[in-house]
Amino acid sequence: MGQFLLIVIGAVPIALVEKIPFGDALYFAFVTGLTIGYGDIVMKTTLGRCIALLLGFIGILFTGLVIAAAVEAVRRTYHHQ
């Protein structure tokens, strides 16, 4: 849940810095934060690119966290049997 909140919050500065509609910024933030990266919307400013890098990094960290939690849950399940 925290990842989605950070992505939504990250869309705000993208919309302001890049001067694009919030809907486009939100779409970009989700595509970047979920590490899909279609490339149909790109950041043109240096600050916008830095924000995009942070969103991508957050996406990678949260993806790793979810996978680690899933692996730990499976490990504990098999350990108790």
Layout of helices and strands:
Layout: H1 2-18, H2 22-33, H3 46-80
**How helical, in percent, are the residues?**
over 70%
Report the structural category: mainly alpha
**Per the principal axes of the C-alpha atoms, what is the gross shape?**
elongated
End-to-end distance: 31 Å
How many DSSP H or I helices? 3
SSE run: HHH
CATH topology: Helix Hairpins
Tally of domains: 1
Report the major sheet: none
State which percent range the strand residues make up: under 5%
> How many strands?
0
CA-atom Rg in angstroms: 16 Å
CATH architecture assignment: Orthogonal Bundle
Brief descriptors of the model:
Helix Hairpins, 81 residues, 3 helices, single chain, mainly alpha
Describe it:
With 81 residues, the chain is mainly alpha-helical. 79% of the residues lie in helices and 0% in strands. The chain is built from three helices and no strands. It has helices at residues 2-18, 22-33, 46-80. Helix 1 (2-18) runs antiparallel to helix 3 (46-80). It is elongated.
